[in-house]
Amino acid sequence: MRALICDAYGPIDQLQVRDVPVPEPGPGEVRIRVEAAAVNFPDALIVQGLYQVKPVLPFSPGAELAGVVEAVGEGVRHVQPGQRVIGFCGHGAFAEQAVVSALQLMPLPDGMDMDTGAALVLTYGTSLHALKDVGRLQAGETLLVLGAAGGVGLAAIEIARQIGARVIAAASSQHKLDLCRTVGADECINYFTENLRQRLDTLTGGQGVQMVYDPVGGDYTEHALRATAWRGRYLVVGFAAGTIPKVPLNLALLKERAILGVFWGEAVRRDPAAHLANMQQLATWFAEGRIRPVISERVGLEGARDAIARMAARQVLGKVVVRPQQ
């Protein structure tokens, strides 16, 4: 089979598409014929050895997929060969076949195509886990989303609207903010041309936001933390800016703010039942027309390396889908 392979941790441009053996599922595992897989920011980190998880070399990146079950390992009962599924695999999805834990698969929801299924799992799963399970976002609260035009940012906007929150989207260009408005952002801030803290004070009447969703890190973290309300919650989702910020902890003390880490992949591993319940909620919202992933581009395996590089440079809006069979 063909796969995009990382032979050594290092620059993204070292990734190569080549033939490798077809993987065999072990106990509790399933082999999938991958019809679609989506690019995410952790893909860029994991191939450079910068992610908290380091797979055994060589490996294929790609954390989420949609496809058809080809074979099941010992003990697998709830999926069968021929079934259309979506799932989270952590790595291995940028290949014509991939092996996935059966506990991290669910049937492709009715009415959902493969591309959409592949684009749903990680970004929407992360954002629902962050806002509901970690942050406990409530109806009527105000949420600030940094890096709002990326995959997790757009998902957070849509999910927060389903919860009943007011959403302020922050991004680096008007083009990105226009996209945020199309998925439901109530207010927008261009943090390249506007003062983030001052604009938030204006939009909240000086009261601050109840929650911040931050997949970016970097220079805006402290400004956003200072703009949270009494007992506001700050969700640390990732560091797409490339810098892990250091903030004065007295900012947490002064307003009894909570700084909360979000590690969705580990949460899935520890509590697969809760993950499945969240995915079923997302499937229901999709069927009702309440959420829909924004897919900006589709590429074959040969285009996956470039897509990962553009993701690392923060040049991607929404999701890029890789079609390994193309």
Automatic annotation (TrEMBL):
Its EC number is 1.6.5.5. Signal peptide: none annotated. GO terms for molecular function: quinone reductase (NADPH) activity. The keyword Oxidoreductase applies. Coiled coil: none annotated. SMART domains: PKS_ER. CDD domains: QOR1. Residues 10-322 form the Enoyl reductase (ER) domain. It comes from the Bacteria. The keyword Oxidoreductase applies. It holds the Pfam family ADH_N. Keywords: Oxidoreductase. This is NADPH2:quinone reductase. It comes from Sphaerotilus sulfidivorans.
